[in-house]
Specification:
alpha+beta; Ribosomal Protein S5, domain 2; eight-stranded mixed sheet; four-stranded antiparallel sheet; 26% strand; globular; binds (3R)-3-hydroxy-3-methyl-5-(phosphonooxy)pentanoic acid; Mev_diP_decarb; lipid metabolism; nucleotide-binding; MVD-like_N
Length: 325
């Protein structure tokens, strides 16, 4: 059966950084994110008798590299759960604003999980999709849901999945500042492994992250942006501090990353609620209220090209689509 799905990317406010189980992708700590509407992936999956291997077409190009192999290994997991052994034709398209600096693995594996589960006739319940998406990329487990989402670390394959926390139907916005769009030199997989194995700060990162999570959930329920922002900013800085103290140390920041962080601090001094978060790359995301977007963009435009600034709203969860990708 042919099936297609769309999923949106998410930005973690309490980060996932470090695996307890590399094979099953079980995280060391629970994490929490906001799904956003600025970037999504659409993917269709069609099992076909004639194929001798999976065929992956991404943004119009036939993939034959490591990413095709990664997708094919993921499809093996789907086949293990299904009665079908057929290979599939997988067509995937990323809808990303030019220059946004958004990564695609979260929306990509969330969309693929939904499309493949339906195409192969396996469990399409949200929890099952979240567990499956997790096996492709940890953060993808959260893109199954819209709004604020928590990935519960769990203790095994069955108990590690995401749950919705809040629909985020309030005027919260996330401004993405694309500092550099090059592919990062050190993958999150490698970066996490090195941090877990060598940073003396790593245990502190895990412990503090759990406390952040306990504090951010009530703040989300109260729609208390300042509190959410402060917790998220401190959490991101602690993750980067753990990277800086790994052996050998590494850093994803560039000059523009620091500039963006300082603008957020400066805007706060002017009384504007605006908080940064940074993933495994140089790009910065600012959490703010809809009413302040104009003022913040005006300030940022003095330092960054306007096409590097993308404003996102909370986005929806994964959905099935019935037209070709
Ligand atoms: O899901 P991965 O393997 O791409 O790792 C994501 C890691 C961070 O983006 C830095 C944090 C997160 O929770 O999304």
């Amino acid at each position: 059966m042919h099936a297609a799905a769309r999923a949106y990317t998410n930005i973690a406010l309490i980060k996932y950084w470090g695996k307890k189980d590399e094979q099953l992708i079980l995280p060391m700590n629970s994490s929490l994110s906001l799904t956003i509407d600025a970037f999504y992936t659409e993917t269709s999956v069609e099992p076909q008798k004639e194929l001798h291997e999976d065929e992956v077409i991404m943004d119009g190009t036939n993939l034959s590299d490591a990413s095709a192999a990664k997708i094919s290994r993921f499809m093996d997991l789907v086949r293990e759960k299904s009665a079908s052994r057929l290979f599939a034709r997988i067509v995937t398209r990323n809808h990303v604003p030019v220059a946004s600096g958004f990564a695609s693995s979260a929306s990509g594996f969330a969309a693929l999980s939904a499309a493949a589960s339906r195409a192969y006739g396996i469990d399409c319940a949200k929890t099952a999709l979240s567990r499956l998406a997790r096996r492709g990329s940890g953060s993808a487990s959260r893109s199954i849901y819209g709004g604020f989402v928590k990935w519960m670390k769990g203790s095994d394959d069955a108990s590690s999945y995401a749950v919705p926390v809040d629909s985020a139907e309030w005027p919260i916005r996330l401004i993405s500042i694309a500092v550099n769009r090059q592919i990062k030199k050190l993958s999150s997989r490698e970066g996490m492994k090195r941090t877990v194995e060598t940073s003396p700060f790593y245990p502190v990162w895990v412990e503090a992250g759990e406390k952040d999570l306990d504090r951010i959930e009530p703040a989300i329920r109260r729609q208390y942006l300042e509190e959410i922002g402060k917790i998220a900013e401190a959490n991101a800085l602690r993750m980067h501090a753990a990277m800086l103290t790994a052996d050998p140390p590494f850093m994803y920041w560039e000059e523009g990353t620091i500039t963006a962080m300082k603008r957020a601090i400066h805007l706060r001094e002017q009384g504007i609620a605006c908080y940064f978060t940074i993933d495994a790359g140089p790009n910065v995301k600012l959490l703010c209220s809809e009413k302040d977007v104009g003022h913040i963009l005006e300030d940022l435009a003095k330092f960054f090209p306007t096409d590097a600034l993308i404003v996102a709203r909370p986005g929806p969860g994964v959905e099935y689509i019935d037209r070709p990708v």
